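Subject: for your reference before the review

Hello V.,

The reviewers asked for a structural picture of the protein, and I figured it would be easier to keep everything in one thread rather than splitting it across files. Below is the amino acid sequence we used in the manuscript, unchanged from the supplementary table.
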Amino acid sequence: MSGHSKWNNIKRRKGAQDAAKGKIFTKLGREIQLAVKQGGPDPATNRTLEDVIAKAKANNMPNDTINRSIKKASGSDAEEYEEIIYEGYGEGGVAIMVRCLSNNRNRTAGEVRHLFGKYNGNLGENGCVSFMFENVGYMILDRERYTDEDTVMMEAIEAGADDVVAHPDYFEVLTSPSDYHEVHHAMQDMGYEFMDSGLEYRPLNYVQVPDEGVRVSVENLLEALDDFDDVTDVFHNMEDTDEED
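And here is what came back from the structure prediction:
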């Protein structure tokens, strides 16, 4: 993959998740609650909820915890979460998009702005960097498990995928955002299990940051944003120096 390694990102995130299960479960619980609010508590008829539950199980979230989150979202005293996208720049001109689930816009905006400023970045207006990204659906398949490239590509396209990209360690199934849930569900019905999947903002081009000090500053900002409970995803266009493929 040009720019950065999805495989590296998956491994880094898995390691971070293993080290902070409680925080990950809090974020997943919010995603479950939002999905229930938007489409109801039955994963059989709510594809978004079905996907979030699959994501939660992939992160070893206990079934009891998942069910509590669903029940909590269905109650009269459920908290109201909304998705908010923030955009800005880190040092070196690195474009950053931050996806949040928040029940308090003022708190979330204040903390995101604080973190950008703390690490020499600038939080901008809506649209200031989003034109540098495209919104795509993706599903990652481990090539150690799925070894027949022709079969994977044929079945993914049959399920409605736009493209399948073969990497040394994994296959990446790509879809439009509008087709993502249908393709995800169709491939699950075929028996596929994903290492990772979701909707993401993918950079159209990447920025090289040769200065080590600037790179560390950007990495610290990305880590701090990811550590904030209200943040579900952080996307950026900094070139990955650890790229393996």
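For the response letter, the relevant points are probably these. The beta strands are 82-89, 95-102, 122-123, 133-142, 163-166, 170-175, 196-203, 231-236. The chain has a mean pLDDT of 88.

Happy to draft the paragraph if you're swamped.

O.
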